[in-house]
Amino acid sequence: MKSSLFRFVLSVALAAAPAVHAEPQVAFDYEEPASLEFHKQEGERDYFLLRQANLVDRERNHSFIKDALPHPDTAISRIADGVGVDGSRGFELEFAADEKTQEHAKERMETYIVAGSDRDAALQLGQVRYLGYSLYIDPECPLPGDHATITQCWQLPVSKESFESGAHSTVRTVSLWMAFQNIDGQPGYQLHVKNEGKPVDGKFSPKSVIAGRGAFKPGWNTLIYRFEPRHQYDPKPGRITLWVNTLDESNPTHERVYNWGVTPQDEVPAGTPDTGYQRYFDIRFGIYRPKQPQRIRLVYDNVRYGETFADVLPESAPSATP
Predict the structure, then answer these.
(1) 92 in Cβ contact with 78 (< 8 Å)
(2) pTM, whole model, 2 decimals?
């Protein structure tokens, strides 16, 4: 059961603020009857379905992907008892220590919070959406040898054909990604974004706009994102805002004004080459990293996606050590 004391304190705090609705569009809960079930395999990619985990719509399934695993026995993904923030069930992801590294190999276990094809819920250019979750970083694991991406926003192509023939056909744009990594010997993060800018060899150049040295702590962390993607021709500025281990909306950990995302194909100015992109984004969480020998174990809980800060506040305070 979620902490009644935390709910009471949170309700008192929200009562003092202007009234806002708190109805997330996606809210994962891993209690029964939630399950992770194998769906299909394509090449080195295994597809699973996260079933009956979305409290907003229990019948909506969410894709979970394991990808490019030379040694699949080193990867663990499960809904596990006792690992949630209050000792309930949580979503546990682990890559075991593995010295059999391969050049350019990737390790990936990711869940789609919302797919760009879901027009009712998907993040799109010019729109504001929030994402929040509780993240457990196992203190028994070493810091990453390289980065480990924990959240991504992918902008969708119009189609495979239009994408491959577009002006920037060499890259399917991951417009934003949050990386957990070793920063000067401390657990930290870097948040990267892309926009059109000036392509180099047909590729968009990434830009790190937010970095936090020592900002993560072993054990539970709370992250809340405010996404506002806008392309380079939009007269209004884009923005990315981040709260790390704070629930004070008025005092974010970082905020950057930056136009991120690619101009959709139907909005490019006359005389400008088509980009081959839509205005919609996939949003995913999980582990996506260059293959590395260090063991990594993360637990996700309280995953919420919605239109306001209040929509994505965690339902319980971290207390357990899974």
Answers:
(1) yes
(2) 0.86
